[in-house]
Amino acid sequence: MTDLNTQMPSGSDATQRSVVQPAFSNDLLERVLHRDNLSRAWKRVRANKGAAGVDGMTIDDFPAWAHSGNWIKVTNTLATGYYQPSLVRHVEIDKPDGGKRQLGIPTVTDRVIQQAIAQVLTPIFDPEFSDNSFGFRPNRNGQQAVKQVKDIIKEGHRIAVDVDLSKFFDRVNHDLLMTLLGRKVKDKRLLKLIGRYLKAGVVDNQFQGESHDGVPQGGPLSPLLANIMLDPLDKELEKRGHKFTRYADDFTILVKSQRAGDRVLKSINRYLQHRLKLVVNTDKSHVVKTSHSQFLGFTFKAGGIQISTKSLLNFKQRVRRLTNRNWGVSMTYQLFKISQYLRGWINYFGIANGYQLCVDLDHWIRRRVRMAFWRQWRKPRTKVRSLMKLGVHVQAAVACGITSKGPWRSSKTPGINQALSNDYLKSQGLYALRDGWIKLHHSK
Questions:
Q1: Helices then strands (H, E): number in the chain?
Q2: Which end of the chain has a smaller Cβ tally under 10 Å, C or N?
Q3: Among candidates 44, 373, 430, 345, which has minimal Cα distance to 220?
Q4: What is the C-alpha to C-alpha distance for residues 279 and 160, in angstroms, rounded to an integer?
């Protein structure tokens, strides 16, 4: 199944004309249900993959389900206003700081519908969003946000006001969000559908029930709703003349003095709590020098972008898990997964001034990989045979094979380094952070 066109009515003339109607028209629901818009939504959901929702239906199951007549029933109930979204399946994922984050997984059907809604609403809301907002927007990303912070610091704003919104996605006020939506969305049927998604409810191991607050992270519509909710904050900061950068619910305000920072933190806390009904985590909100501030995994020292200490700790923890003795997979697959992670990591963090850091990390990673090989070989006989097969002289291979040293100490011995040389590991697919960093900076 390449699209959903075959499952959609051909569309009346009014439906076809709705595509070119003004943004504030009352037929936005027809735009959402336009077959071309739904087809694009399905393709996007399919490309994003993702787990099944509460109904257990996977991305692969969806085409056959839709072609059996179910999709026509869904679009009919949407058009007549009787569609009721399914509960959202809640799962917990680990946060980098060691805590847990609630992630909501809608059904595939609801993901397609939410994506279709987002595709209609984004062109209406996004053009008027602040230039200082970078999260979940077309042609914008976290790296651009980090670079903007660096540029503001160069202008002399070296004090950061870091405000932490406590469980933002769980505490969005539905009434206020619907009011903000209603300023531009005049189609009451679409507003009613969005309201149903907000109140659809969640299910996990403990309970199920209707949601009275929050926008579950995980649905295609949630990022846009989050930006709509926080756009008044952007406008307020701009009105006050502040220099700031926001990525979703992460934002930092940059000022020139500690005194100004303290004043801004107090007034913005008051605005967030009273005007936007959001909870500020006072323990994590503070005013600090930019060299001690963290934003999207980076910090800012000596006029440049640096990878934060916390980000490096998280990186090493992930590599340790990927080279763990208990994983129970082949080294070929292990190297593939390690390299996949390293490529993604350097493509994001490569904007930092970190050439020597990449060289040092590569050295540590290769030693972890050699240790993983050593553990996989297990028995002394297998170790000796494997080393000899890779060109190590028999005496050196036997000395390594019968050593009483542990895997970490053994990984540094000459015999293992000869067998599992840098060139050999590269030939087996191990990616080097250094190469990624050079490629990124030479392509500028």
A1: 21, 10
A2: C
A3: 44
A4: 20
Give the 3-state secondary structure of residue 197.
helix
**pLDDT(311) > 70:** yes
How many Cα atoms sit within 13 Å of 168 on the Cβ side?
Answer: 20
Contact criterion met (CB below 8 Å) for 105 and 119: no
Neighbours of 412 (CB within 10 A): 12
Q: Which 8-state DSSP code applies to residue 86?
A: P
Structure tokens at 105: 């997984």
Strand partners, 146: none
Where does the pLDDT of residue 408 fall: very low under 50, low under 70, confident under 90, or very high at 90 and above?
confident
Please name the amino acid found at residue 357.
Answer: L
Give the residue among 35, 37, 30 at the shortest CA–CA distance from 15. Answer: 30
Alpha carbon distance 314, 95 (integer Å):
10
Tens digit of each residue's pLDDT (9 = 90 or more) over 232-264: 999 999 999 999 999 999 999 999 999 999 999
Half-sphere exposure of 328 (CA within 13 A, CB side): 1
Q: Between vectors from CA 83 to CA 16 and to CA 105, what angle results, nearest 5°? A: 105
The identity of residue 391, as a single letter, is G
- CB contact set of 46 (below 8 Å; sequence gap of 6+): 59, 62
Look at phi and psi of residue 123 and say left if phi exceeds 0, alpha if psi is from -120 to 50, else beta: alpha
The two structure tokens encoding residue 129: 């969003």
Name the amino acid, one letter, at 425: L
Confidence of residue 3 (pLDDT cuts 50, 70, 90): low
